[in-house]
Amino acid sequence: MASTPADVKEVPGALVFEIDMPGAKTGEIKVQVEDDHTLVVSGERRRAEDKEAKYQRMERRMGKFMRRFPLPEDANLEAITACFEEGVLTVRVEKKPPPEPKKAKTIEVKVGGSSEG
C-alpha cells in the first residue's frame, strides 16, 4: 500500500490536513473516522489502460493508498469537511470550543437558628 505525502497544520479553531493525490479521482477517495479519534484517508489511483503503449519507464505511483492521522480529544467529529482540488485533498476538522470554566457554587448563609446534628 503506497503512502502519500501530507501536511497537517493547526489554524484557529481547526486542524487542516492537505494530502497530495495527483491522478486520483474523487470517486476513488474515501475519508473516514475510525475508533472515534482516527482520521483515515484511503483510495486507489489507477493507470489508464493503453494497450498500444509500451512503457519505457513507470515512476508514478499507482494502486491503493491509506493514511491514518490521530485526532485530538477536542476534535468535533460532527464538523469535518473534505474538498478535492487540483490533485490535493484538503480535510478540515473543526475543534470543539473549550469548556466553560465551572462557576463556584455559593451557599446561602442564614441568620439565626442553630443547626442540630
From TrEMBL:
Q: Where is this region: Disordered?
A: 95-117
Q: Which InterPro entries match?
A: A-crystallin/Hsp20_dom, HSP20-like_chaperone, Small_HSP
Location in or out of the cell: Cytoplasm
Domain of life according to the entry: Eukaryota
**Composition bias type Basic and acidic residues, residue spans:** 95-108
> Domain named SHSP: which ranges?
1-110
Q: Which regions form coiled coils?
A: 41-68
- Mainly resides where? cytoplasm
Question: SUPFAM superfamilies per the record?
Answer: HSP20-like chaperones
Q: Name one GO cellular component term.
A: cytoplasm
The protein's UniProt keywords, in alphabetical order, are: Coiled coil, Cytoplasm, Stress response
Q: What is this protein called?
A: Hsp20/alpha crystallin family
